[in-house]
Write a structure and sequence with these properties.
Blueprint: E1 3-8, H1 12-22, E2 28-34, H2 37-47, E3 51-54, H3 63-70, E4 78-83, H4 89-94, E5 99-102, H5 107-121, H6 126-143, E6 150-153, E7 158-161, E8 166-172, E9 175-180, E10 184-187, H7 191-197, E11 203-207, E12 210-213, E13 217-222, E14 228-232, E15 239-242, H8 244-253
Parallel strand pairs: 1-2, 1-3, 3-4, 4-5
Antiparallel strand pairs: 6-7, 8-9, 8-12, 9-10, 11-12, 13-14, 14-15
Helix pairs in contact: 2-3
């Protein structure tokens, strides 16, 4: 079988060295390279690699943040951290990294890591492999609450949004839009999936088409037939409807 690999490092020499070592393996196909975390996320979403060799200290978005962002993916690539520093080892395994390689790379050590992956992918007892994979996913779900950014895939890039900057989200047609204080973004999430991703933050469903950040509600006023309207704290002071069935749960959440 062919194993697709993405190499992520802000140093071109490190990428070249790793590419050379991996090219010794016939089953390895290097599908791409990235020099920072933002570019890495975009290529992971677009190329679907089996393995990501990921540097930790990089500009814009570091490797640990990239790995935490990937915890929410249904199909996760295997993460192998490749770094010059060993103080991040504990954090690396907290995000389900398969291995942790130190620079400068040792060829035998790199090959042992590849063999470890191949053994899991080619295990003759598929039940054992899938049980191991399920344990990995369960671990990811336990750790997903630590993910501090929401990954939003735009046309040609991936944007990481701080959930605290989101004022509300709403369904429009077949799409879901996220409204922050500065911008409005169209996402590929359903509102239900978005609600699940934001469950560890202060978000509340107030309507079948609206999800609001409780911290950004300015006022709540009666509207019609038992429903209410929220005025949000963004510059436009957006109005968000509250369905009648959500009024009491919302008042309880706001301790009114």
């Amino acid at each position: 079988m062919t194993i697709k690999v993405l190499i992520v490092d802000d140093e071109s020499l490190a990428r070249d060295e790793l590419r050379y070592l991996l090219s010794q393996e016939d089953e390895i196909e290097i599908v791409g390279e990235a020099e920072n975390g933002e570019e890495a996320l975009t290529k992971i979403f677009n190329l679907n690699p089996d393995i990501v060799f990921l540097d930790i200290q990089m500009p814009k978005i570091d490797g640990l943040t990239v790995a935490r962002t990937l915890l929410d993916l249904k199909k996760k690539p295997f993460i192998i951290f490749a770094t010059a520093y060993d103080q991040h080892a504990i954090h690396a395994f907290e995000v389900n990294a398969i291995d942790y390689l130190l620079k400068p790379f040792d060829e035998d050590r790199v090959m042992k890591t590849i063999e470890k992956i191949k053994e899991k992918l080619n295990h003759p007892n598929q039940e054992v492999f899938f049980k191991w994979l399920e344990q990995l996913r369960e671990g990811s779900n336990q750790l997903s609450k630590h993910t501090s950014k929401l990954a939003v895939q735009l046309e040609e890039r991936v944007l990481l949004i701080d959930p605290n900057d989101i004022v509300y989200a709403f369904r429009e047609g077949r799409g879901v839009l996220i409204k922050t204080f500065a911008e409005t973004y169209t996402t590929k999430y359903t509102l239900q999936v978005l609600e699940e991703k934001l469950k560890n933050f202060s978000f509340f469903r107030v309507h079948r088409s609206y999800l609001v950040n409780l911290n950004h509600i300015q006022e709540m006023t009666p509207w019609f037939n038992g429903a209410y309207t929220l005025t949000m704290k963004d510059q436009q002071q957006s109005k968000v409807p509250v369905s009648r069935q959500f009024v009491k749960p919302l008042r309880d959440a706001l301790e009114l």
